[in-house]
Design brief:
- The protein is α/β, with parallel strands linked by helices and about 230 residues long.
- It has two domains: about 110 residues, Rossmann fold, CATH 3.40.50.10090; about 110 residues, Rossmann fold (3-Layer(aba) Sandwich).
- Strands 3-8-7-4-5-6 form a six-stranded mixed sheet, sandwiched between helices. A five-stranded parallel sheet has the order 2-1-9-10-11, with helices on both faces.
- Strand 1, helix 1 and strand 2 form a beta-alpha-beta unit.
- The chain is elongated and about 55 Å long.
């Protein structure tokens, strides 16, 4: 079966490999591209780093490698290790476990620098502030929207070659709905089953009238576990 994958290209390629190992094919159709924002790093001192995406990789070069790092999951920790940070503690892949890990490791009152995206969620910063930490947020990169739906996705949707779509972020789900509409393919897209990483990711698709399936937990393995339900 062929699945529409709208993540940024590097992530989409890894997902395509996982789909291929399960006997499926990916239609790579990134609706965002990761670019640096150019925003300067905060000048305030900090006690530890928070990294919630591997897309922070380019920003790591300017940071103090002697500070402890808290990574949201193993995939995120990989570029941190490659950049030479020796003290890395890894959570279970979601904001809840990351907050729990930090609260169990550090004393309230410390200042944490969160290297994050331009379009980011309130968590983990909101819960950490509530727990007594000072959070500095550096919006070092962003998922910039592409202007049009990629040609291969247009052709695959128009010709009925897509069995379902995979969604990893609410923003990309919003974008693919808009881009498909602009291409005159809204009904084709919304007529597919949509496999979503979380209920939040699924929300714009449900609002648009699409059928959605939500992973039991916010991990790619759980998301890919939904494949059998549309095969």
């Amino acid at each position: 079966m062929r699945f529409l994958v709208t993540r940024s290209m590097d992530d989409a390629v890894r997902t395509a490999e996982k789909l291929a190992s399960r006997g499926h094919e990916a239609c790579l159709a990134p609706v965002t591209r990761i670019v640096p924002t150019g925003d300067p790093m905060p000048l305030d001192s900090y006690d530890a780093l928070i990294v919630t995406s591997a897309h922070a990789e380019a920003a790591l070069a300017s940071l103090d490698r002697m500070r402890p790092v808290f990574a949201v999951g193993e995939r995120t920790a990989e570029p941190v290790r490659a950049a030479g940070f020796p003290d890395i503690t890894v959570a279970e892949g979601d904001a809840v476990s990351l907050v729990r890990l930090i609260r169990g490791t550090l004393a309230p009152g410390l200042t944490l620098l969160h290297v994050t995206a331009r379009h980011h969620k309130d968590e983990p910063a909101a819960s950490l502030r509530a727990a007594g930490f000072t959070i500095l947020q550096w919006e070092a990169y962003e998922a910039e929207a592409v202007e049009t739906l990629p040609d291969n996705a247009v052709e695959a949707l128009r010709s009925g070659q897509i069995a379902a779509a995979l969604h990893y972020s609410r923003r990309s789900a919003d974008l693919v709905i808009r881009l498909a509409g602009e291409a005159g393919l809204a009904s084709r897209l919304l007529g597919l089953p949509h496999l979503c990483l979380s209920a939040d990711v699924a929300a714009p698709l449900r609002l648009a009238g699409a059928t959605t399936l939500v992973a039991e937990e916010p991990s790619e393995e759980a998301l890919l576990g939904l494949l059998d339900r549309v095969s």
